[in-house]
Design brief:
- This protein is an alpha+beta fold and about 450 residues long.
- It is about 55% helix and about 15% strand.
- It has a six-stranded mixed beta barrel.
Length: about 450
């Protein structure tokens, strides 16, 4: 420990002696680490974090399809929902919901407020493991026609429109002119695929005349613990054949009729997974370029210190001890760059959230948390090792006697020049990969903007 502290103090003195070099190296490292941390905060929130529900890996969306009619993904109808509940063997629970409906909310004869309502069966919120902040969610007995005049408020509406009134339960509001009793308030952390201000019972009637062509329901299923996604798909294939028996004219094989399940995580992430991975790969290349750049700078600095290093070697310092000293300097440089990079990342993450499209899933979850900090620490450590290896290996291969004789010229100088050339070539290659990728992306965007949508898009 004493030896390490001694190396650390010496490294700090050496960096302080070259403020221009230190500033340039720290900025290069900080930009690379900051960009990686900011993008990783998005990837972590959108792709890596499990959904904030109970057993999210067991949750799947169930879709219908008519492939041969150009409908690869379709909502389901009420009769299909009832049939699935009756015949399925894979799901512990099945819920239906109809999201995104606008309703007028009024209270105390005030001005109406337009809010978004989600109508869902009583099984949906318990399936997700939602514990209300206040009150309760509606029961199956309230999820029937004639008894559905109850409402659960989102935290946002409760806080903004009702002032966070803790005594809100039991009070009445009007939705589209109908009275509803407030029975619960959802927690602030709860979010769903489609944001909703109020939650209402779907109140489906199994006894009404079946309309199999009215596909307006989204279905969510929770697989049993012993059931895999492949097994649930086999069960849904049997269900599709059952539906064909019920209505052979509608569910015909020549229409490509079928039912399939997709993990809820996949549904939420949608099509942003691949672009985010590409973006993370791009900033990793930027970090590699920064590492090569700093390694080159350290090699130049090590070459200028060859006589000093040779004298220390002559006084008894081993080559491994000298290499460790250079690695300590690189680690300290990386640590300072990591701290500055974290500041860049905090600013960059806020900017990314501010400019991100509203369609980006889990936008509210994007922030620098413990996982992102651990990623930053790991990247900082790895970065220090990466660009610290080149000068350390160079010192270990240098003959101190030769350095004392000719002041660092000769074979060691040739070796250093060769290493710097390799690093420069690597930087150019990585930069070319980024440049080509960016060019292809811009070209694809230009072609996309030129596609005729089939209607006049101006104004």
């Amino acid at each position: 420990m004493h030896s390490f502290l001694s190396d650390l103090r010496f490294a700090f003195r050496m960096l302080r002696k070259s403020p221009g070099f230190t500033l340039l190296a720290v900025l290069a490292i900080a930009l690379g680490i900051g960009a990686n941390t900011a993008i990783f905060s998005v990837v972590n929130a959108v792709l890596l974090k499990p959904l904030p529900y109970a057993q999210p890996d067991r949750l799947v969306n169930v879709w219908g399809k008519f492939d041969k009619e150009g409908i690869p993904k379709n909502w389901l109808s009420e009769p299909e929902y009832w049939d699935l509940k009756k015949t399925n063997q894979s799901f512990a629970s099945v819920a239906a919901f109809a999201p995104g409906n606008g309703v007028n909310l009024t209270r105390n004869s005030g001005e109406p407020l337009r809010v978004t309502a989600t109508y869902a069966t009583a099984s949906l919120l318990p399936m997700l493991g939602v514990a209300p902040l206040l009150g309760r969610t509606y029961s199956p007995e309230e999820d029937v026609p004639g008894r559905e005049q109850v409402v659960v408020l989102s935290y946002g509406v409760w806080n903004a429109q009702f002032g966070g009134d803790a005594n809100i339960l039991g009070k009445e509001i009007n939705l589209d002119g109908k009275p509803y009793a407030i029975i619960g308030v959802l927690p602030k952390t709860f979010s769903f695929s489609k944001p909703a201000d109020v939650w209402l019972p779907l109140a489906l009637d199994p006894g009404k005349e079946p309309d199999r062509g009215s596909h307006y329901l989204q279905l969510l299923g929770k697989m049993k613990p012993s059931i895999s996604l492949a097994q649930s798909q086999q069960d849904l294939d049997r269900f599709a054949r059952y539906e064909t028996e019920q209505a052979p004219d509608l569910y015909r094989s020549d229409k490509g009729w079928g039912v399939f399940a997709r993990p809820l995580q996949t549904e939420v992430v949608g099509k942003v997974a691949d672009p985010l991975r590409v973006l993370l790969g791009a900033v990793l290349l930027v970090l590699l370029i920064a590492c090569a750049n700093v390694a080159n700078l350290l090699l130049v600095k090590a070459s200028s210190r060859q006589r000093e290093i040779a004298i220390r070697s002559a006084l008894g310092a081993s080559q491994s001890r000298l290499a460790r000293q250079l690695l300590t300097e690189a680690a300290l440089l990386s640590a300072i760059g990591g701290v500055v990079g974290l500041v860049f990342a905090l600013i960059g993450t806020k900017m990314l959230v501010a400019i991100a499209p509203a369609s980006l899933p889990r936008l509210a979850d994007i922030h620098v948390d413990a996982t992102v900090l651990a990623f930053t620490a790991a990247v900082t450590l790895l970065t220090g090792i990466l660009f610290g290896l080149a000068p350390s290996l160079h010192v270990m291969r240098t003959d101190p006697n030769q350095s004392l004789k000719d002041g660092g010229k000769g074979s060691s100088g040739v070796s250093s020049q060769r290493a710097r050339s390799v690093l420069v070539v690597s930087e150019m290659a990585l930069a070319l990969v980024l440049l080509v990728g960016a060019g292809l992306l811009i070209r694809s965007f230009q072609q996309l903007m030129q596609v005729d949508p089939g209607f006049r898009a101006d104004h």
